[in-house]
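Protein Entry — a single chain follows
Next Lines — sequence and tokenised fold
***
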Amino acid sequence: MADAGAGHKAHRKPMSWRFMNAVDSAVSMVWPRGAHGMNGYLFLLPALALVFILVVGLGYMVDYSLHELDISTYRLKEEYSLANYLMILERPVYLLVLWRSLLAAAIVTAITVFLAFPYAYLMVRTPSAAIRKFLLIALFLPFFIGQVVRAYGWLIILGKEGLLNGIVTSLGLPPLDLIYNYPAVIFGLVQYMLPFAVLLITPAIAAIGEDVEQASESLGANWTRTFRHIVIPMATPGLIGAAIVVFTLTLTDFAMPEILGGGTSDFIANLIYDSYFQISNIGLGAALSIVLVIVGSGLVALIFMIAGTGTLGTEGRKK
């Protein structure tokens, strides 16, 4: 009897197993096994909830944008009108800032993708594990530093009393004007967006087998022709994805124009902030937000129309 009791205790299930069995039983009561075919849709619920919240927020902004500010009370008028949108079209400063934002987004996207592609290619193709680790560390380190901190860091380096100007003045040359201008904003945005572009391009290059390049070279193509006609076309999904992400993030950026631009190179996001918190015109800020959403979404849709959504790997394999 004692031996049987000892054997029974030895074969008792651990507490963690019993806990998991209890959880499984509770889940089975709430979600019966017959409904397990719907499990995949459950994973969509968080995304659908976020989209729903976004749509509701956009709906409120559309409503606010159709109400003009009453200067006497600093409240939005009850009647609907297009006054805020007409103000955006009639005042050149808003169109100028929108054009400046679009131009910066295009420039930053072109420079970033151009720099990110060889970085990602070298990181994937290098045979040296030490170089690969170094490139990975250099890639991920910026993510541990916030954008605002990095922008202020560039102020220290590029300022009139900064490191670079210290070297220039020590050589007897006049200090350079390196901050509070448009090129400084472009420079800061490229440095900020580069890791994002590399991370998006790297999987596309890693998916290209080295045997493909070797086959091209064995057929008589040199490295340049292989890179231009084989590697770049096959890496198109990563290039397009990186371009879209960098473009949209740049177009909506606030910190770099605010800090490195010094108020002289504001983007449309800065105008939205000023409309909400400086002049307290919620209707105008909402109208600018809607314009930004329409312009950004329209340009991304245009890219998809030209390149096709299949370039991003969203189309299944054809049998």
Summary: The longest strand covers residues 69-70.
